Amino acid sequence: MALPVLSSSAVKFRRVLAQFPQELSLAFAYGSGVFRQAGASADHGETNMLDFVFAVDDVVTWHMTNLSKNRSHYSFLKFFGPKNISTIQGYGAGIYYNTLVPCNGRMIKYGVISTDALIEDLFHWNTLYVAGRLQKPVKILAQNENSRLQAALVSNLKSAVLASFLMLPESFSEEDLFLQIAGLSYSGDFRMIIGEDRFKVHNIVQPNIAHFQKLYSSILQGCPQVVYKHQQGKLEIDKSPEGQFTQLMALPKTLQQQITALVNPPGKNRDVEEILLQVAHDPDCGYLVHQGISAIVRSSSIVQSAKTILTAGAKKSVIYSLKKLYKMAKGELKKPS
Predict the structure, then answer these.
(1) pLDDT digits (tens, 9 = 90+) for 249-293
(2) Beta-carbon neighbour count of residue 218 at 10 Å?
(3) Comparing 17-26, 28-37, 185-194, 288-297, which segment has the lowest mean pLDDT?
(4) What is the dihedral of CA 68, 69, 72, 76, to 10 degrees?
(5) Does pLDDT of 15 surpass 50?
(6) Predicted confidence (pLDDT) per residue in 167-182, tens digit
(7) Which interval of the chain is the signal sequence (predicted)?
């Protein structure tokens, strides 16, 4: 069975990529313009905005070149030059978005992030913003031979699996796991209350199970803490305190810090390992992991959304927000049974 990527060919994406400076360590397309989502009409993906992320080694030089090639993509911030644009990029999730950009007959949105900031997010979940997007199926368009970046991409997927294990029961289905993984980067995101379809996670996972399997199958098969019954689509994990402690100790650094902050009383200086051992024995272990993830996402999503007013400009911000609200309203009318 063919995987349900929309008919936009690699050539179409390459044509978009050709419009930009080529010094990219990673470029990928994601979202409903690339992968079909539940409840969308057959031609919806062909008219939907295409979303891209470009990781670059030298942010200032990349923006300087892009300003000379695509000055109209930028808001009023173009008048402040590439250095100031790069400074603003550093706030929030460390990514700078140009949105509602006409390109080859389609509307696109593209975000620029430094390679170093991306690697840090993938390894440590500093913001779980771009790392969260890369926990779901994406279409990789370009990737250089950066071994640290490759290791970080794999580490991010393994971390998503472990964090999800801690929030799931002893036995569950593949779809349960993929729903948990896809929902990680939306936990605590205020836009899920207003601005996003409440069934977004379900809509992402349901038509794309095969893509999630392709992304996570080797990690699940190589994980010693899970019995992966691939043919039946079932999984069983070790929910003993010892098993949970092993998983907690392997979580990204920022998430460990958030979890310890939740359970360690102010002024009491205890070792992280000691605190996580306590959490492993706590019946609310999964809830504490969820709260830790929510704290990371909440902080980055608020600052990133506020930054959009500057990076997109007032007019585009209003148009983009109205489009999101429209999608949210449509989602309410198409509640899954």
Answers:
(1) 999 999 999 999 999 877 778 899 999 999 999 999 999 999 999
(2) 11
(3) 185-194
(4) -30
(5) yes
(6) 999 999 999 999 999 9
(7) none
Do 276 and 256 contact (CB within 8 A), yes or no?
yes
pTM for the full predicted model: 0.88
- Enumerate the H helices of 34-146 as residue ranges: 44-47, 59-69, 81-89, 115-124, 130-133
Alpha helices in 5-58 (DSSP H): 10-17, 44-47
Which residues, at least 6 apart from 297, have a Cβ–Cβ distance to it below 8 Å? 127, 128, 129, 132, 185, 186, 187, 188, 189
| Close Cβ partners of 162 (under 8 Å, ≥ 6 residues apart) | 247, 250, 251
What is the four-CA torsion angle of 109, 31, 25, 74, rounded to 10 degrees? 10
CA–centroid distance for 208 within its chain:
16
Mean pLDDT throughout 235-252? 97
